[in-house]
Amino acid sequence: DAYTVFINTIPSRYYPLFMLAFQFLTILSMREFGPMLRAERRAKYAHALTAEDANLDEIEVDEQLSPSPGTPHRWWNGVVPIVTTLIVVLLGLTLTGYYATKSAGDDISASNIFGNGDSYGAILWGAFVGSIVAWLMARLQYVQHGKLFNQWKFWLKCRRVPSTEGEAPARPLLTLGESLKYWIEGVKGLTTPVLVLILAWAIGAAVRDSGADIFFSSAL
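^ Na+/H+ antiporter NhaC-like C-terminal domain-containing protein, sequence as received from the core. Prediction below:
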């Protein structure tokens, strides 16, 4: 199965192994190399954050996803949705793989469970739950006077956060409309790799259905 093939080919995956070793070398030597070194020098001496030949479309997307001025930055608003996504993905892989392995009558082992798991469904559910958690966290946390606080006790009493006359009322970190807007902006950056995957799957299906894979394997 694909999972066993992937595990057995890890020792031959030289590029990711060398990149991991290179990251440890960068940390231990406390210096950058190549493009990162040029970017570091450009920021230090030329006070420029981007290169002259940088892709402006990517820079504009990053700026559009930046938080509004005056929004308090809290690490858990980024970490909790990501951790939730990972947990749901692993849980989905484990459950679907367990029941598929059990129904097939195979041995209940880690390799069989993850090999028979529904990776597509697990990733889909993980992304969905992670998005919902991120929206709920942004909706339940309110900003007033540049400070962040939870709205839960006011929600339970069906009351709004009190504010004095002439004072801007408290607002959530993200409204529903803003959440949808930023979610769509984030999805834009994934459009190209998703299209590449769809086209690769289409080519693979066409080659398999036409029998070209058998022809190429025999010719080579």
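DSSP finds eleven helices and three strands in the chain.
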